[in-house]
Amino acid sequence: MKQMEKTARLIVTVALIVLASTSLSANGLNLNGLGSKAIAMGGAFIGQADDYSAIFWNPAGLTQMKNAGFSLFITDLIPSGTYTFPIYGIDAKTKSAMYPSGALGYFKPINDKLVIGISAYVPSGTGAKWDGEELKLLSKGAVYKWESFMAVISVSPVIAYKVSDTFSLGATLNLDYGMMKIKRPGVGQYTEDLSGFAFGATIGALFMPIDRLGVGLTLRTPTKVKFSGDAEMASASAYGLATTSDAEREATWPLWLGLGISFKATDKLTLNADAQYTNWKKIDTIGITYDDAVWQSMKSHPLLGAAFNNDFVLNWKNATQLRFGAEYAVSEKLALRAGYYYDPSPSPAETLNILLPEVTYNVITAGLGYKAEKLAIDFCLEYLMGKDQESPLSGKMPGTHGMSILVPNIAFSYRF
User: Fold this and answer.
1) Given the DSSP bridges, would you call strands 223-233 and 114-130 parallel, antiparallel or unpaired?
2) In 211-358, at which residue ranges do the beta strands (DSSP E only) sit?
3) What is the rounded distance in angstroms from the CA atom of residue 60 to the CA atom of residue 158?
4) Distance of CA 375 to CAs 67, 74, 77, 380, 411, Å?
5) Which residues fall within 8 angstroms of residue 39, CB to CB, at 6 or more apart?
6) What's the pLDDT at 59?
7) Spatial contact of 91 and 135, defined as CB atoms under 8 Å apart
8) Are residues 288 and 180 in contact, defined by beta-carbon separation less than 8 angstroms?
């Protein structure tokens, strides 16, 4: 038990250092998955869930582990975003940047039925970084920073139990640390830096009536993060106002529900399909409350209201991802994988904004895995092809919004 506690502390410490730089979501506030093997199969993994990434997709699948081991997952999101608004002569692109992320984990079978473990990973993140020079016409010719960053790091202890030869259950407690940073024009440069803690849970079930078939069901509970920190308005003193205020926001990562089927068509070929639903409709507005009463009242000021009212009005709708994947075992050690998934945007056109970018994606994935006696290495390349979305003149940020993302990742698993 003492060794387990030391391992947990190590995982948490390293995770907060390594994972805290992540950003940019696939859709909504969520990233597009965990684990190179799973993602290479289009993230259609709920019905298979036979490696460490089951802690994300379906914790019941961890009962398939026969040996204790460590896992390391490294991914890098490379986005290319665009925003055009011809009426204002704006043709902007995101700054060239990479957003690394990943996961660390340790898992141990206690006996033939029970598996425990802990993992730190990033289930959610969104944001963008734009060239202020290209957006200066939105701020009367002045150049400001347009940047956003919103992410959650989860530290999840997990338990999985094999109820019978065909049925397993699993659950995690998700201890979440959320971060939110915004830079945009205000009265001068506006910046905010907020953080907060929350907790939730993931519950999964896996039914394998025959060796070739797996059916999985996973539910992730809503998580409400209360952010607090500082906001700054660089030139507010020109109006006799304080330049800083404590601030708070509240954001809910809503219920996520997934159903997956895995079918081993031959001894070498596995076919998977998932439907993954997110209750994004629960997210209406991510508002901000300033502790400074004058700042708070300025949100409705007829002239300065646009500078102080930094609420994100979203009015999102529910969305369901459809995911498909395949794995072909070339040999006992080498496997080839490929997948596709459809990722619809939860955002109506009227509420699109460049700081929380949202478009619909068609996603293709490919990868391979090599498994030795104790070490497994998996590689995946994912490409999210975004569909340009038009926001009308009546919208929050009218114009054409576009995004595509290239995501290479690699994972290492070592079994004792």
Assistant:
1) unpaired
2) 213-220, 223-233, 244-253, 256-264, 269-278, 285-286, 288-290, 312-313, 319-329, 334-343
3) 9
4) 12, 16, 25, 17, 10
5) 32, 33, 339, 365, 367, 380, 382, 407, 409
6) 98
7) no
8) no
Give which of 155, 173, 164 is closest to 59, Cα–Cα: 173
Residues 348-374 have a mean pLDDT of 93
Phi, psi dihedral angles at 141 (to 5 degrees): 85, -10
Structure tokens, 346: 């939860």
- Sorting pLDDT into bands at 50, 70 and 90, what band is 26? low
CA-only gyration radius of the chain, Å: 22
The identity of residue 118, as a single letter, is I
| Residue 45 within a domain | yes
Task: Indicate whether 6 pLDDT > 80.
Answer: no
242 lies in which domain range? 2-263+284-320
Query: What is the number of domains present in the chain?
Result: 1
Where residue 221 sits, what CATH number does that domain have? 2.40.160.60
Q: What type of residue is 124?
A: S
Confidence class of residue 124 from pLDDT cuts 50, 70 and 90?
confident
Long-range contacts of 111-115 (CB under 8 A, 24+ apart): 112/162, 113/63, 113/161, 113/162, 114/159, 114/160, 114/161, 114/162, 115/62, 115/63, 115/65, 115/158, 115/159, 115/160, 115/161
Q: Is residue 293 part of a domain?
A: yes
pLDDT tens string 59-114: 999 999 999 999 999 998 888 899 999 988 899 998 877 778 889 999 999 999 99
Residue 175 placed within a domain: yes
Q: Which helix (H) or strand (E) holds 16?
A: helix 2-18
Residue 150 domain-assigned?
A: yes
